Amino acid sequence: MGRYVARRLIQFIPVILGTLFLLHILTTVTIQVVGDPVRALFGENAPPAEIIQQLQVQYGLDDPCLQQTGNPCFGLFVDRLGQYMQGDFGTNYRGRSVSELFLERVGITLRMQFIALAFEIVVGIFIGVLAGLRKDKFIDNLVRITTSVLIAVPVFVAGSLAVLFIGLKIGLPLRESEWAPEWLGQMFQVGYNPEYPWLSLFLPGIVLGSFSLAAIARLTRTSLIENLRSDYVRTARAKGLTTRRVVAIHTLRNSLIPVVTYIGIDLGLLLGGSLVTEGIFNVPGIGLLTFQAIQSNDTPVILGVVTVLTIVFLISSLLVDLLYAALDPRIRYE
């Protein structure tokens, strides 16, 4: 196990370097084609050339290669790598440290993702098991229809509908009523409330996890139905084991292997989905920070956030691989 983990960690290096270089090329070509982002900050009210030159030096945009269209700027990439290895992700175009901005907002995004993951895992596996055990019955048909609708609806559509019908039609009357407790109204809050850091993220977390819930439910259902036909299940039943023990101890563990794989991938999908969800619900997390950075062409923020999220995605994929051995004793890594 130790050697396998070490090999995987070594494999992280080319993936991270490749991601950073791709981002570097994209941002470099954008600057070469579109123009200097420092000058774009001031628009028509440009300051003296000395101030612009000073800002270019501060943000690492004074390299002559940025004036040559098509130049990959390898030296600038090496300098940026050295800066990242020291834990310094630079400053944004408003003078704020990217690391500080990330630390300020990462807690909000992690709380929202925790709500989304808990919702999709618990509810998704539960209804997937119910549908798998009652194949072609009413509950199975209901789960298949509901999950198909959830998968077909994009996140921004689901978020907009949730804001309109749940946040405003239900949440607003609850918050204005005298009989409803305050915490109940905050669960259907449209927007983030620092006084209720968990409850105010309930609705956006549910919306964020709804698509993945549908996928987990269908994966669980399909895998469970397939494993219920296996020889080891028939053998367990022939030994006189109860249905609950056969399903919970023998069948469900093997059925969860593809589900765990999807959950590991879903961590990256949730990070991408949070960009849209946080924008709809005005949640000041990493997604909204990235969205604002893209709008303002704030390159240091984009590079820093994507780098950290790439590392998180790689670590989650490693943890998923290690969980395989816990779910299936036949899987070994040595």
From TrEMBL:
The chain crosses the membrane at residues 12-34, 112-133, 145-168, 196-219, 259-281, 301-327. Its main location: membrane. Residues 106-324 form the ABC transmembrane type-1 domain. Pfam families: BPD_transp_1. It comes from the Bacteria. It is a multi-pass membrane protein. Keywords: Cell membrane, Membrane, Transmembrane, Transmembrane helix, Transport. Belongs to the binding-protein-dependent transport system permease family. This is ABC transporter permease. The lineage of its organism: Bacteria, Bacillati, Actinomycetota, Actinomycetes, Propionibacteriales.
